[in-house]
């Protein structure tokens, strides 16, 4: 009996240093992406029936445009190639520091068109079956917890055609070379939810860093850029329904949802009614020198949720929309940003 092919035999790599849409670059050392879930592996086709009179509805059906939007569910680590997808989605990673710890300041740009913010994604399953997405552009991500007690990151992408097996340029030897970014043995492989710190105060107040931590039961931070596949006439059978490089079509969306420990007072309901602005800091901590920090200089409520349900405890959930503001006290920037402090010496994007 043949051995089963399962996710334990799947190797996934991402090479971020590409510059031409549709041209693959093989991943290698430090490019391994450790996923909990990945897919779908195949494209989704739009099926149409021949609309002419005289044909039965099921007589002539053909596939048209192919859409491919694989997602990666990644346990959030202090280091890893998945941070390249986050940095590319945001638009800029500025690395500073001459030794461990290095600071990666990931800042949000208005759009990522024309900035080569894409890469090659490849997967090998069972040591033999290879998939290659020559060009993959990250379109959004979600950080959430607790997921089995840890922090998870879901990364959404949009891609061109998927090359299978010998049709691709990524070969078995490229997968043999895959390694994960170096992580010091003292650092945790995955951030636990117990190491999450959330602080928030009013926009006009003092620095968030001086505020007391607010205990939370869960959080979800989602950011999405507005992309769709870009199908163009090319008069080329070889690229039948292959997408050109997608461009942004609308306004990005961001939402921070935080469930508080318990129903305590009316502060946030009153703030929502008064249309007050807040600022906040969400951190995944290991120690004073290795952590991930999301900082929000401006937040508005949309809205505060609290439902009375039978004899259960009443939850209180804050839905917060990040906005651009004048830099408040303690934050020398106007839009939200992400800082990753670890021992990786190269900019992720």
Describe this structure in words.
The chain has one domain (9-45, 63-342). 6% of the residues lie in helices and 41% in strands. It has helices spanning 82-90, 172-176, 267-273; strands at residues 10-15, 37-39, 44-49, 61-67, 71-75, 91-96, 102-108, 119-125, 129-147, 150-159, 162-164, 196-202, 216-224, 253-260, 277-287, 290-305, 317-322, 337-342. The strands form two sheets. The protein has a 16-stranded antiparallel beta sheet that branches. It has a two-stranded antiparallel ribbon with strand order 3-4. Strand 8 (119-125) and strand 9 (129-147) form a beta hairpin. The radius of gyration is 23 Å and the shape is globular.
Characteristic terms for this protein:
single chain, mainly beta, 41% strand, 349 residues, two-stranded antiparallel sheet, 6% helix
Major sheet: size, sense and barrel closure?
16 strands, antiparallel
Work out the helix count. Answer: 3
Q: Could you tell me the strand content as a percent range? A: 35-45%
CA-CA gap between termini:
45 Å
Question: Which structural class best describes the helix and strand composition?
Answer: mainly beta
Poorly predicted segments: none
What is the average per-residue confidence, as pLDDT, rounded to a whole number?
90
Order of helices and strands: EEEEEHEEEEEEHEEEHEEEE
Shape: globular
Q: How many beta strands in the DSSP annotation?
A: 18
Helix content: under 10%
Rg, alpha carbons: 23 Å
